């Protein structure tokens, strides 16, 4: 049975009014499981109006009272973890175990944001001039919006919602239309946790919905995560309309493998980071760069052996290492990139195309593919494939390996595997990329540090979560005060200076 999803506005599930819907698939079966309403401009404007009204009271709550709502939310999620993970897995196609990780990484940012009474404290200078004190305070922006991708339907909405709400903003979430059920459930739980109606609204939709959020003057800031062309569009449109924007885009993450690395450890790390979640992670490793022919030959042999042992199956199969891709379009795109790599002259060591899973013949499955001898002039190297395709680019030496991620147009994550501290340190210092792992394949920073890529992986100047998120979702007001003797002495006609 195909269910009909809703929006979540003013604390209630609200059916769509436009009569326009998007299909939400079960990627395991290839069947439509739900229809998601697509909001038009008028519907989205009503959601913004509701949020603007609700924000006034929410912004006046003490930070500690706001934190209590986040803490209660964490309690309410606890008994629902398994149900949320299963719902997430059924719409996205990642395994249930991986879906648990998606939720957990989001909850960690809620835990961070619950520290808001401390995080939002301003600065104070006593006696900045004679009888003058200066203090700065952080105030909420008002209504802020988050536009999120399909690939982390719990984590990324929570990365955006939790700090935005903790800072006293009303938050409007426009989740991916491909897997909106979990974001809707999370909004319901926030409401049950005591969030006043309208403070967190979820509006489903596509371009028209997004464009309304980007141009409406009542929206003060936009946080986006998705593909680079849309990130760039959202950034330029939002900023042209006077909004703050932070927009995170695509990636092509490299792993440098030095000859002194433990190659079994490297191969295990690459298999997990390259093929986990069917490669649909912005921090997936899609390029391995072994240094030296001997390292490369040994690495390709170890990868080939491990790929043969992988299980690609239904996302609720506990034995599956990874599940299907999110959509038929994604499947066709990934398979066509494998074909392109062959045309471009890369050596296809393992061809994952055409993988069938028994009982799920119409699912969006493709197996793990491995290319060797990929070169930087190939499109399979330059472009984000966003599927289970790992490319090996052989480097002659360390300097050549360092140049590859540094000169790539994307600069999200990168990692190096080595036993040499000096090489690791030099690499961390010099590589032109936002997040670096040293013997860590997927260096997603913990919640209290910040997450953000460089170059065409990120547009804007502040990162997600950690201290940057508090800066992004507040504006600083600085108060200079003097009591009251200066006034008694009469007006001053020269500019005040510190004496
Ligand atoms: P996407 O760009 O297709 O969609 C992201 C969001 O933008 C969705 O909510 C979608 O509805 C909306 N959107 C799509 N087309 C639009 C348009 N023309 N105008 C306005 N809004 C539009 O991305 P996706 O396929 O959902 O997600 C995968 C991409 O996200 C990959 O490129 C991946 O690397 C990237 N990603 C990046 C990060 C990061 O932190 N850098 C994290 C996760 C995913």
What does this structure look like?
This protein has 499 residues and is of the alpha/beta class. It is built from 17 helices and 23 strands. The protein has 2 domains: 3-249 and 457-479, 3-Layer(aba) Sandwich (Aldehyde Dehydrogenase, Chain A, domain 1), CATH 3.40.605.10; 253-438, 3-Layer(aba) Sandwich (Aldehyde Dehydrogenase, Chain A, domain 2), CATH 3.40.309. Helix content is 39%, strand content 22%. The strands form 6 sheets. Strands 15-16-17-14-13-19-20 form a 7-stranded mixed beta sheet, with helices on both faces. The chain has a 6-stranded mixed beta sheet with strand order 10-9-8-11-12-22, sandwiched between helices. The longest helix is centred in the first third of the chain and has 20 residues, at 41-60. The protein binds nicotinamide-adenine-dinucleotide. The site of nicotinamide-adenine-dinucleotide has 26 residues, from α8.
Ligands (ions, cofactors included): nicotinamide-adenine-dinucleotide
Rounded to the nearest angstrom, the radius of gyration is: 25 Å
Q: What is the strand tally?
A: 23
Uncertain segments are none
Q: What is the makeup of the main sheet?
A: 7 strands, mixed
CATH superfamily of the largest domain: Aldehyde Dehydrogenase, Chain A, domain 1
Strand order of the largest sheet: 15-16-17-14-13-19-20
Structurally, how many domains make up the residues? 2
What structural category do the secondary elements indicate?
Answer: alpha/beta
CATH class of the largest domain: Alpha Beta
Number of helices: 17
Organism: Nocardiopsis metallicus
Domain Aldehyde dehydrogenase: 22-479
Keywords: NAD, Oxidoreductase
GO molecular function, one term: methylmalonate-semialdehyde dehydrogenase (acylating, NAD) activity
